[in-house]
Design a protein that fits this description.
Layout: H1 10-21, H2 24-36, H3 40-68, H4 72-79, H5 89-119, H6 128-132, H7 135-153, H8 157-184, H9 189-197, H10 206-220, H11 228-231, H12 240-268, H13 282-290, H14 294-328, H15 332-351, H16 368-393, H17 400-407, H18 420-441
């Protein structure tokens, strides 16, 4: 049997896992979700969901991956007890990751396009609507995103994925701090900080709670094996709850600082913070176009965004690649070619969904992007997190003892016996309740 590839260092594992978690969910989706859901109250619920739900699920996902030493396609099948039928869940993981890339690669392409426009000085004569309705721009930058990602992955886990992601993550952390300092020192930034950091409890309701939970799962990329694949690449020197805390802290830091960049800047220039998906694009581009040396600051901002998006694309595409190679027996390079074609073709629905392939799955104005996001964020991520919590904490699956033994192997923060009710009852019940409430209040039409 071919020896499984491994990561070269703990830093590589942390940066890869954090890179997969840190992405458009933090710096594109989190700020506009926060803006549309009342600011500080949403962020408070989001942080609670990260601790109560995100930390246990991430620890369990790392443990299943490391315990199985295989991709998510076969991890349930390998760890299940005789007579159990958890195997098909692996195929759901594969479908979920592909559906995520069906829209995520397009958003990453948008960010590359905005970076190029600011870099080349063409930042004052374009906009979000003009971009998404232009088939040529969407397809071209989608192709660039997919091509660059799978070229890097073709170099291997250590030589390509780990090495490139470490550099991107270090660059990302430096850039985000520089941008945050610039934003909070703008005139009028105080009002933006108050909106963002001080909760308005009158704006907190069930809809905000559902949004916060879905955002927590989306930003951590948990529930469909995106973290499990990195667990399968690491040794047993460190316990997994401690590693999960480190990843979540990095992820939360980037999300929170992204808000520190956007909200003070928006309030400083009198721009709407509840603009939705276009907040990052039209609103922030407008900020930089009015700012002294705005072209330079805009270039830095969208370079940071490109790093954030590509780190997630690389992580999720590595997951897809590992599962497809296990399923078919292909080598890495052939797998990259096949997976690249599959992702590109499926993502064309989103790339052309605002121009050629009109499709309105839900309320007025929805498109293919909303359809794929609904499948992933509203369904597969929370339900996948529910499945993995049942699998790890109940005897109908791998079981609590097996999970705890794997999670606690090595140095670091341990899962304690008193935490069992949280993993076994609190996490599943909370997910089920919030998931059902979310479906009942979803804007279908």
């Amino acid at each position: 049997m071919k020896e499984r590839e491994k990561l070269g260092s703990r830093l590589g594992f942390i940066m890869l896992s954090a890179g997969c978690a840190i992405g458009c969910g933090n710096v594109w989706k989190f700020p506009w979700m926060c803006g549309q859901n009342g600011g500080g109250g949403f962020m408070l619920l989001y942080l609670i969901c990260l601790i109560v739900l995100g930390l246990p699920v991430m620890t369990m996902e790392f443990a299943v991956g490391r315990g199985a030493q295989t991709s998510p396609l076969n991890m349930y099948k390998k760890l299940q007890k005789p007579g159990q039928k958890w195997g098909p869940i692996g195929m759901v993981c594969l479908i979920g990751n592909i559906c995520l890339m069906a829209f995520y690669t397009v958003v990453a392409g948008w960010l590359i396009y905005y970076f190029v426009k600011f870099l080349t000085g063409g930042n004052e004569n374009f906009g979000f609507v003009e971009m998404i309705t232009n088939p040529g721009i969407n397809v071209t930058y989608l192709f660039v995103t997919v091509l660059v990602s799978f070229l890097i992955l073709s170099l291997g886990v250590q030589g390509g994925l780990e090495r490139i992601t470490k550099y991107m993550m270090i660059g990302l952390l430096v850039l985000i701090l520089v941008l945050a300092v610039r934003s909070v020192t703008l005139p009028g930034a105080k009002a933006g900080l108050e909106f963002y950091l001080i909760p308005d409890f009158g704006k907190i309701n069930g809809k905000v709670l559902v949004a916060a939970m879905n955002q927590a799962f989306f930003t951590l990329s948990i529930g469909m094996g995106s973290m499990a694949i990195f667990g399968s690449y690491i040794d047993k020197e460190r316990s997994l709850m401690g590693e999960s805390v480190t990843v979540i802290l990095l992820d939360s830091f980037v999300a929170i600082v992204a808000g520190l960049i956007m909200f003070p800047a928006c309030f400083s220039y009198g721009l709407e913070v509840n603009a939705g998906p276009s907040l990052l694009f039209d609103t922030m581009a407008n900020v930089f176009n009015h700012m002294a040396n705005g072209r330079i600051w805009g270039t830095i901002f969208f370079l940071f965004m490109v790093f954030a998006a590509l780190s997630t694309v690389l992580g999720v595409c590595e997951n897809i690649l590992a599962m497809v190679c296990e399923l078919t027996g292909m080598n890495r390079k052939m797998g990259c070619l096949v997976c690249g074609v599959i992702v590109f073709v499926l993502a064309l629905t989103t790339a052309l969904g605002f121009s050629v392939l009109h499709f309105q799955p839900f309320a007025e104005g929805s498109a293919w992007l909303d359809f794929w996001d609904f499948i992933v964020s509203t369904n597969i991520l929370p339900l996948g997190s529910l499945v993995i919590s049942l699998f790890c904490s109940w005897s109908i699956g791998w079981g609590w003892e097996n999970f705890m033994a794997e999670a606690n192997e090595g140095k670091g923060l341990k899962v304690r016996s008193w935490m069992k009710p949280v993993f076994r009852y609190v996490v599943p019940v909370a997910i089920i309740f919030i998931y059902i409430y979310g479906l009942c209040t979803f804007q279908w039409r």
